[in-house]
Specification:
elongated, 2 domains, Heat Shock Protein 90
């Protein structure tokens, strides 16, 4: 019983009823325009004095409403009303003006349906409550029985006044049921007539995927750049602190390396954040490449006391820009991983080779503990694997050698592959 009452008189049913009444109110100007055609066509001077002529005026006004629905703001306004009054989710509705022929046709169909059904429910809402009130009061008010007020002759029977309140209440319940049913019908059809097409949904999904790809790309850039800088600065500062009194020259070199590292990282951070603020297209923030800054990367790493041996084959300066940029980040992250897990003073061997249409990157270092990503969201080796996979390459990492004391990272990137 409570469920039925909620369906007929609950908040959602009442809001949908309001939506239908608004449709009836919007229909009134079109009914008046229809009267201007029906009156001369039938020779009637009082169209609203005849119920059939009223229906004819109503029917004549709906095609006019369909034409005026081509106004650009019709679909956004109707979609907003459906969202707030009919309880339809916003992602199932198109809030932009109709542009294609199909969208305009569906908007016209919806506007006509809204005004047509709303006009009927609004007319019933105006007529039935006074009629039901008279029937409910009929047994208790003798004057109503005497004046009749145009009531049906069946009420002249002696049993009729006793049943009149039942009929009155039933009329109100029937009105609520019609309004709830009509509101549910419009809510059901709204996404089909006012919602985005499958092509629109596909385009929106592609746009979201492209935006997510850009953001993931920027997140990797931030992680690799800032993460490496923090690891290097921490190592350099620690090494400088240990020899502060005994080796001032090394301290000066470490401080200079810290200054250079932080300056470069702040510049990269500003560039990435600028892309995020501006929401620029599918591009990404400028990043260093092997050709431009590999020697600087190795020098900054060595300045912290890390012993780095690098073997770089000829031809790396002619790498495609995308491969060179990603390779730089992979080498940078490989060095950061060695700094985090091997510690200062441990020898790191870096080899970069070009053969058989591929760029091979190998980073090896001794390990003193388990190799894993940092807790709390660090990407580390997973980020390297993501970069390699996006270029159509491969990445493998693990321990080898006697008792598994050597950690080896090996990445292969095709020089011509998916961007």
């Amino acid at each position: 019983m409570k469920g039925a009452a909620r369906l007929l008189f609950g908040r959602r049913a009442r809001l949908r009823w309001v939506h239908l009444i608004l449709g009836g109110a919007l229909a009134m100007p079109y009914v008046l325009l229809g009267e201007a055609f029906i009156g001369p066509a039938t020779g009637s001077q009082n169209v609203f004095g005849s119920f059939p002529l009223q229906l004819a005026s109503f029917g004549a006004g709906l095609p006019i409403a369909a034409v005026t629905s081509l106004f650009p703001l019709t679909r956004p306004l109707e979609a907003a009303a459906v969202r707030w009054l009919c309880g339809v989710d916003a992602d199932r509705l198109a809030l932009a003006p109709a542009r294609t022929r199909g969208e305009k046709a569906r908007t016209a169909a919806w506007f006509t349906l809204h005004l047509g059904v709303g006009g009927i429910i609004a007319g019933m809402s105006l007529a039935l409550p006074p009629f039901a009130a008279v029937l409910i009061a009929l047994p208790a008010v003798a004057a109503l029985r005497a004046t009749r007020l145009g009531l049906p002759e069946v009420l002249d029977h002696t049993w009729a006044p006793a049943l009149a309140p039942v009929v009155g209440v039933a009329s109100l319940v029937a009105l609520a049921a019609c309004a709830a049913g009509a509101g549910a019908l419009l809510a059901h059809w709204a996404p089909r007539l006012l919602g985005p097409t499958p092509e629109d949904r596909l385009a929106a999904a592609e746009a979201r995927a492209a935006d997510l790809a850009v953001r993931n790309r920027l997140a990797r850039e931030l992680h690799d750049s800032v993460g490496h800088a923090l690891s290097a600065v921490t190592l350099q500062a620690g090494a400088a602190r240990r020899v502060l009194d005994s080796d001032p020259e090394f301290v000066r070199e470490a401080l200079a390396a810290i200054e250079d590292t932080t300056r470069r990282t702040v510049g990269e951070l500003d560039a990435v954040l600028g892309v995020l603020r501006e929401g620029d297209g599918p591009g990404t923030a400028p990043a260093p490449t092997l050709a431009a800054d590999l020697s600087g990367l190795l020098a900054r790493t060595r300045a912290g006391g890390q012993r780095v041996t690098a073997t770089v084959a000829a031809g790396t300066g002619a790498l495609p820009p995308l491969v060179s940029r990603e390779a730089y980040r992979i080498v940078q992250e490989g060095l950061s991983n060695a700094l985090r897990h091997a510690g200062a003073g441990v020898a790191v061997d870096v080899r970069i080779e070009v053969a058989d249409g591929e760029l091979a990157i190998t980073v090896e270092n001794p390990v003193t503990g388990p190799v894993s990503s940092r807790p709390g969201g660090g990407h580390d080796l997973r980020g390297i694997a993501d970069r390699a996979r996006l270029l159509g390459g491969t990445a493998a990492a693990g321990t080898s050698g006697a008792a598994g004391k050597i950690f080896r990272l090996h990445v292969r990137l095709p020089l011509k592959g998916p961007a």
